[in-house]
Amino acid sequence: MNAVITPKKEHYKELDSIRGVASLSVLITHLLLVFPVIASSVTYQEHPLLFIAKYVPFLRSLFIGGPEAVKLFFVLSGFVLALPFLRPGASIAYLPFMVKRFCRIYFPYYTAISLAFILSMAAVQGPLPEYSGWFNSSWADPLTLPLLLHHLFLLGEFNHHAYNNVIWSLIHEMRVSLIFPLLMYGVIRFSWKANILLYLILGFAGFYLGGFGNTLGFLLLFVVGALLAKHKDRLIAVYQGLTPLRKTAVFFFGFCLYSLHLPDSLKNSVLITAFTDLNMIGCCILILAAMAKGAFSKLLRHPVLHFFGKISYSLYLLHLIVLIASVRWLHGSLPVWLILGIAAIGSIALAALSYYAVEVPSIKIGQKWAARISGTGKPAAAAGTAGKVNGTPAP
Question: Is residue 216 part of a domain?
């Protein structure tokens, strides 16, 4: 296939902002998970208010909606990556596509994981009993050559909790990127029903198998994002045609589906698949509402939210590193609430620096290298969009 240049790229600032809000949700979730009572499984009888906050739709997304935010990232990635493939006459060369994906994802990731390695060696070692097992699972293992190589290539099965456990999503992101052009062939060639049926079956099998199979479980999220991009004009028109009352009802219904979460005690392959699919439907409704004209879309175009959208990938990559370092260095010297506040502000500041100093140059390098490979001599807009539209890849 040959890369082609198209005259116009689609860019949705609203989707930038959704990604930014989702990244903030992950940040808030991890700030709270340092507390053992939050990180552990709870029943309604033990902690009724905490149980409601953790598992009641809508309320959950305000406090600990990180897992659902990552599913939203996956759907958004499928949507964004699909756009260049769906342009009339588009033909996307595989190698330039992968070069841009590699530079877009790996260069900021390498910067973040290097920082994690360095800070972990300088931080206070050993478990901190006052904090959760989730928190203490990071920076607890020695850096060995096999672990270093796994972090370098980011495709195998390894202890991703060791230094920055958010990278679990990047593992799936890169695996899916390797086959995304093939997924798009199916999206373009076959009906949405055939695509959803196939990936529902694969998803159930994947979550049942675990390990590498989990990537199969998440494929449907990327494919549905791509299908949403394929049919976006018609779906947006349907949503805009609703009465204000029905729009509001659909929006809140989607938000509730998005924020559904399965208690750990009930997890099995069937329910994991079912809840993932419900979350996915909610994600699609939120994305459609964001792209349609209305109050939600107007809110998402606010400069502050758009700023968080731009730095969302760096914020996702760096916040846990800043959080762990802050707690380990300041534990015993400052109150916990103040340490968490410092970690939150520090994460946002470092993410902004990383965006301008690392992400933007990484995108330009990827476009430049891809242009050389494709022989165009300058960045190809069609292929380049996959790395730049809406600011960030889904972590």
Answer: no
